[in-house]
# Entry
Amino acid sequence: MMIERQNRRQRVLIITLIIICVLLVTVYSRESKDGLFHRLQRFSMDVISPLQKGMSKILSPVKDGIGFVVDMGRARGERDSLKEQVEELKGQVDELEDLRRQNEMLRKMVQVKESNPQFDLLVVDVIGGNPDIWEQTIQIGAGYDDGLQEYMAVLSEDGSLVGRVIVCTAKASIVQLITDEKSSIGARLQQNAEMGIVKGEGGGGVKLELLNQDAEVNEGDVVLTSGMGGTCPAGIPIGTITEISERRADLSIGIRIEPRARLTRLEKVMVVLSPPPSAAPIEAKGGN
Amino acid sequence: MHRRLTFFVVLMLALLVQLTVAPEVSIGSVKPDVLLVTILCWALFQGPAQGALFGFFGGLLEDIFSTAVLGVSAFAKTLLGYFCGEFQQRIISKSVVWPMIIVFCGSILGELIRFATWAMVGLENRPPFSLGLVMGFALYNALFTLLVYPIISRFAAREEKAMMFQ
# Structure
């Protein structure tokens, strides 16, 4: 009986309180900004604001502490995000650097094309090297379909001799580098037009064998293609003489050449489509 | 008389803390509702009638000391205080985990009631509902229960002792 009465009283209480709340909400919503409740709110805020100000000052270290902890969390998140951005930007920088390099290379190639109007040059991508350590060759991404044929001369981005096409398929070709032991190309000295043959030594070296053993030759002399043999057009730079050794037993002198083309860093090359080769190359023979 | 005094003291303390301390310990835009935590803890010790009364007066004072629509907080907190008091008779455990769970759920419910009331009143410029914000708010309140619950428990024990001597 007692509990029932208590329950009833509770129910009455809650209903009364809810009705009061609803009435308050209704009256407040309908009254103007200068109504009683609005003014009461403004007055209360005036009363409490000094207290809030004081408490704000007292609790500022706590606030700072919380801010610090929150900032730490945020900073960690920002750090991770920045790290990701840095990685992304690094990738973009690498990409841009690559593009810049390619652009520079193509610009050089255009210059070579413009300064050699007698040549019909085709820019081709280098698509691979030779896995065989005994052969100094590269594979390029053009073949018969693109107008290539065997023995055509191949130039680097700056117009220096790289080598010669030795195998040609429909879509790809193999270029024998001037450093290959089987490579031999007719050459002449720029200074005095003394003729000779440039032969590969394998392992990155190139030597010059002069026809006239008494010809005047000096270190730093530039070696060009002679056009003899009919494979490479005349006047293409091959390299610079870096070493002249003493006369050997056969009275010949050993002349080493530093190839001008950077043969280990080829990305694009130019194939001389015209004038086309008129004969098969001179076969290199072993021995010094 | 003693009970009314305790009621008044706890209510005023909670209101003061809510108005002055809570904004200072906000994390981002989430600040604790110390008053709500106190109301729910009070209701857990004193039952539904006391819970409803505490909720009503606490909410009303909060409304008066803010620019919110008068009566909305009072309405939400009255309902929460009442139903939380009803829970008191069903919970036997003395662990603080239960009050934390109740405060967590009560905080979410309170915000839903508040939004529903605003919608019913047709309040313009009401903020967009953010579940993340409400969850953060409920979690912060639940953590605050660890501080508030033992204090209310002490007040309740003192009051019980006073009643026994009477």
